[in-house]
């Protein structure tokens, strides 16, 4: 009896691991866009946190360097928050039913 339960748990863990891998691979293809300055600075990032594109409105290029740096940082942080939220949403289906401690995020 105990052996069957253990085998079932092992099979379940293996299936979950396969599902996690598929979900993580899919996240690499999902892009989110962060922006700042009313859309004058945009950053496109994958949900694996790879920056794919940075777009800066030409009107900002002659402006204050410090302001432009702040806008790029704000757009990056906006994209990062969106990527993390999307990752949590997509991974929640994979981790459903798993007893996780509060605040624990997937993937580790």
From TrEMBL:
The keyword Cytoplasm applies. Residues 99-108 have a biased composition (Pro residues). GO terms for molecular function: DNA binding. The keyword Phosphoprotein does not apply. InterPro entries: YbaB-like_sf, YbaB/EbfC. Keywords: Coiled coil, Cytoplasm, DNA-binding. GO terms for cellular component: bacterial nucleoid; cytosol. Binds to DNA and alters its conformation. May be involved in regulation of gene expression, nucleoid organization and DNA protection. HAMAP family: DNA_YbaB_EbfC. This is Nucleoid-associated protein MIM_c26130. The lineage of its organism: Bacteria, Pseudomonadati, Pseudomonadota, Betaproteobacteria, Burkholderiales.
